Amino acid sequence: MKKIFVCILFSLLLTQSCTKVDEVVYDKYAASTFYSSPAGSDVALASVYALIAGNWGGVGYAGADNGWYDLNVMSSDEQVIPHRNTGDWQLDFAQLYKHEWLPTHSIVANTWTWLYRAVFTANLAVEQLVNAKADPSKIAEAKVLRAFFYYLLMDDWGNIPFYTENNVTVENLPQKNRQEVFDFVVSELKENVEKLSPNKGGQYYGRFNKWAGYALLAKVYLNAEVYTGTAMWQECLSACEKISGGGFSLHPGAAKSGSPLGYQYFELFGDVCPEDETILAIYTKVDIVGRNIFTVRSLHGPHANALFGFSGWNGSVTHKNYVDRFDDNDIRKKQFISGQVEGGVTYSRELSSLDNPGADRLEGIRNMKFYPAAPMNGGGASNDFPIYRYADILLMKAECHARLGHAAEAKPFIDQVRVRAGLNALPANPTLEDIYKERGFELTWEGHRRQDMIRFEKFLDPHDFKPQSGAFRKLFPIPTFALNANKNLVQNPGY
Amino acid sequence: MNYFRTQLLLVILLFLCFTKQAAAQNRIINGSVVDQNNLPVNGASVSLQGATIGTTTDSSGKFILTIPSSAKSILVSYIGFIEQEIRLSSANTYTVILLPSSQTLTDVVVVGYGTARKKDLTGAVSSIAAKELNPGPVTSPLQQLAGKAAGVNVIQIGNEPGSSPGVRIRGITSLVGGSDPLVVVDGVQGNMDLFRQVPPSEIESVDVLKDASATAIYGSRGAPGVIIVTTRKNKSGKSSIEFNSVASVDIITKKLGVLNASEWWKEAQKWNVPASENHASNTNWFDVLTRDGFTQNHSLAIGGGTDKFNYRASLAAILQNGIVINSNYKNYIGQIHAQQKGFDNKLTITMNLNSNISNTLGSPNSVGRAAFTSNLISNAYVSRPTDPVFNANGSYFTDPNVFQYINPYAVSQTVINEGGSNNLFGSLRTDLEIIKGLTASWFGSWRKTDSYWGYYIPAASTVATAIDNKGIANVSNNRAEERLMDISLNYKKTFGEHRIEALALYEYQTQVYQGNFAQAKGFINDITTYNALQNGDLSKVTPGDISSYKNDRKLVSYLGRINYTFMDRYLLTASIRRDGSSVFGPNVRWGNFPSGSIAWRISEEPFMAGQDIFNELKLRVGYGITGNQQGLYPQNSTQLVAASGVTYFGGSQITNFIITQNANSDLKWETRKQANIGFDFGVMGNKLSGSIDVFKATTENLLFNYTVPQPPFPYGSILANVGSLLNEGLEIALNYQPVKTRDMSLTLSGNVAFLRNKVLELSGSIDGVPLNTDYVGWGNNAYLIKGMPIATFNILQHQGIDAVGAETVIDRNKDGVIDQGNQSPDRYIAGSALPKYTYAFTPSFSYRNVDISMLWRGAGGNKIYNGLRSNLSRLENLGKSNVLSTAPELGLFTSQYGSDLWLENGAFLRFDNLSLGYRFNTKSLKYVDAFRVSITGSNLAIITDYSGIDPELSGAYGGAGDNGIYPRTTNIAIGLNVIFK
Hints:
By secondary structure, chain A is mainly α. Helices cover 42% and strands 5% of the residues of chain A. In chain A, helix 3 runs antiparallel to helix 6, helix 9 packs antiparallel against helix 11 and helix 15 runs antiparallel to helix 16. The mean pLDDT of chain A is 93. Chain B has a 22-stranded antiparallel β-barrel. The radius of gyration of chain B is 31 Å and the shape is globular. At the A-B interface, helix 1, strand 1, helix 2, helix 3 and helix 6 of A face helix 1, strand 24, helix 7, strand 28 and strand 32 of B. Strand 1 of chain A pairs antiparallel with strand 32 of chain B, so a sheet runs across the interface.
């Protein structure tokens, strides 16, 4: 009897050591230790770039769908995905095109979510790089990236919650007005751009080097009047001049067999964006790093299948009124496709309806600016995407000169771009209208159109299926989910 | 000295000791125990009430017992029969007839970590004996429970081979934390998967612990209820060989009506579908993809034993050929149970070993076009009847003009989707009676599960992603190891009018989960399918193609319980459990889960002696706090970094790392506080008996992914314990046995449960961060809304169809804009997906050798959003799809809304089971003890207004929509049961 009791007591005692329930993590790293290593701080910077490549779920600047790119191009006049009378495609895109979006619009929400996740990641990178006493150029790079995201937020929403340290509480998360965000972006860029590496290509391909930093600063100045009411054309011009120090030139445009669509011009939108003209690109390798869906989304199934062996989505089209503004000699017009094509498909130039009952299956002019680069599949191709390129800078210079009243000085810049496209130089000094149109020819489908239309005061005008819209449409509404989650936020007027 | 210590311990444990000394004079009584068929009952216990004197009957049912001459009565009991108290007269010979104990108040019930007599129960427990289980071609033990217990809702969605039903006990207790009950099979704790290891024919009893006073003993795992399965053991002194076999033909009795080829073309022309879309065939896609199914269920059990040793071993095979071509399921279960007594019967060692091997060949669950993704069979509705199955050259037909066209027959023939699992559990239990009444026990169990899955989808399948990648193959392997050990002391003592039982227990559990996944794409041909991933194009490896994981959790618990009975009338149960778990946040590692309940057997009161209304009347009142930690996964509470795809940086592609979640170091279990009041009664000589229970349960610290402001959070939600959820209900179970003679019996049983669910709170704050969560989309226009049930429909109101065939909805706030946002004022509240009531009626009748039983089962008070009908009704889809035969009359061309046009009443009454059995007389047979044949029909009819294929969907889980299910079958089964001598 005694022995048995001893045994039981002993086993109960033994169990005293089995009272620890601490957690062991086997297959992930603890954030607290991961980022504090030198390798970790580099990874923190790299992970910011991971958010720029386009991917499913509205992630990224451009390349995929339902995110920043769609918000900023479909709300302009250059692109739309009509609802089809075969029941295909939701109405989100037509709503953007017709300026009928509500604060609950999913693409508005996706873009907000993406940008604030990007801000968080950039804040994290800044914090980790500073803690790790990393190379100042890397700290500057993280800060410029953050300024880039705030610039995009300011451009789309104006008045936005602002924070630079992640451990902030909601009470200390002020909603700054557009002027305040503008001031932050400008001062952050002025302070850091010079610290960025001047190197191009190689290790710096797809990254903010000094030239990309100035291109961003120039963009901010270019739209200063829209953001703050005070124009800053001279400052924009000086920033553009700085970029010239990077030794950029226009990529040749001439016909060349083997080039996409038969012209060297379209190499700008190919597998790798050429170093001569590209200032900042998004590196893309389908299914691995982002994706570029723009051609496969536009073409009808059998057409894409005949060309590439993968079915197209029969999605985005451009209204003929937009396409018809192009000169027939303009090599840039080659990106638009209509009529009889491969795969037994004949696209009609007409567009009978965007929403109800929807367009016929083969209506609408298609676009192949991003002629699919391998590897590709039905989920996209590997074309890199130019965020900033020299042609844009030339047109910005032309615009600044024109805005400052020096139309003659503007002319050579716009002419360079025209001549490369197979056109003649302008017969006279450019008007602002000429520059606006030229931007529409050169930069279409590259994500600049909404900003340009607002700056040139065209955004609210009626066009195609869109009636005149209210001035409040120049800003997007703060998404409903964000307002609900943070009761301190104030909605933009008009929504 | 040592003896003195033992005595001291005893004194402490038995602080109330009033043992009466028995008188010295004895007498001898004898007799026999028989069952209702006058057959001897072997091994029945015959004992003196309140004393330790007792014996068991021999193989001819005879007993002899020496008792004090002062004894007034003896107790005769046997498992499965009603215990009888026999008043002693001057006679010395007694014949006792024991009656089977179906749904009576005196059964032995298995409760957590022990057993109790049903009459001593203080909590809400539903007990189902083997013979009450649903007969027929069951593939999961849960199917045997459907309709058998009030408040226990067994949900079978479709009859996909190998798919197990789900169960909800007293409703949905959690939003994301899991509402599956804890499953305990012969002491081994696990999740619902454990049912796959239970051979349906080897179940002795199933006990469902429903209220907190019963489940609190399981602490942080008890909140959603507990299902305890006890498998059959061999009876001492008996040996048997038992063979069971059920074979069933499974047919589809209800399918959706879609247009045939000529109807389609007629309608298509009306809507200007070009002739090029008419591929001039006449295909009934549903028929092409389906066949009659066949289900078999065989088992062989052997057992034997002496008074010191017994064993039972069984082997079962469940084989199912699904009604969709190329779908089947096989499950083989082997089980050995052995028990040995030693140390002069003071020591009992029980060993259990169970293993199952199952294989599934599944039809793909998620295929289709961008616009319509569902299971394979639902794709049959979408396919145009004018499309041929094959091209002229023998290849599978596909239409390049339709975005992501799929040919479902090609999918069924070319996609390989198969897997299996090998599960093993063993347990060892040692009970040692240290002194009379005090038992020390050690229990250990070890469960290992290994499962694999192989998948190959070739380009020939016509599925777009497979074409894009030139074939996709993947394999995954998962394994889990769950170990449990407990050490306990149990003390039982009866003295005078007092009976006390006390339990102290320490438990330690570890669970380890590991697995890996590998995928390859780009195959030159389809010969090696998923068997040689290296044959794929390795240059196409993308992030997500390779992964592995490992995590574990530990749970340490201390628990104590006391049952106290006074005068067999006043009953008290109190328990406390303290749980510590590694998955709780570092700030809250330990939680306490107490419970208390009392019962009053009013019918035993002297003042009830004069009345003859109530034979039994018991009042039960209980309250307890339980927890739920299913929804907490290891590593939920800390901020972690993990690989997330690839990024391009520094001139090369490198692995990207991200912070994977918003961290919450206060993460803990959900707390469920439940109060229960119940009555058990028997009237009219116990012909009518039943239970009525009323309960109110509040889940606090409700786990959910609460909305956080973004910014500053990188993700829009955080897993936290903030809100609360209410379930309250009324359960009534009745059993009426108007006829009970030796030859004939008629039993009318039924139960009904009413359930009300309400989301009490979804907002709050953690660490000063406001969490403003409301109107959370729950899918299919259902929402989580504060103050409303889970899955409340908040939906646009259909108005009509305009001249061009577009749907219009009512602009409720009349602002000229239809806002489809979650909180849009254009939406209105239109009921909930949760059934408000469930009920069942289970009459049974037997006459001599014939028995008949039925199960009628229903639910209602819920709505279903018929998403499939919405998809298959829009005529704009005609060019690429088929539509329902009701679509032309509806005349809806297009709609941009998900309106209440598709919202339907989900109530149903199903004639779920009809079984007819015949027991042959075997008295003349030398080797056969029992021989029974039966014929069973399942799912014979359904009464419902629901227009879809079956109204029994995921509503009871809070699912709101019907997006196409694997069809529900009607089964006609023939069964055979033989017991050899």
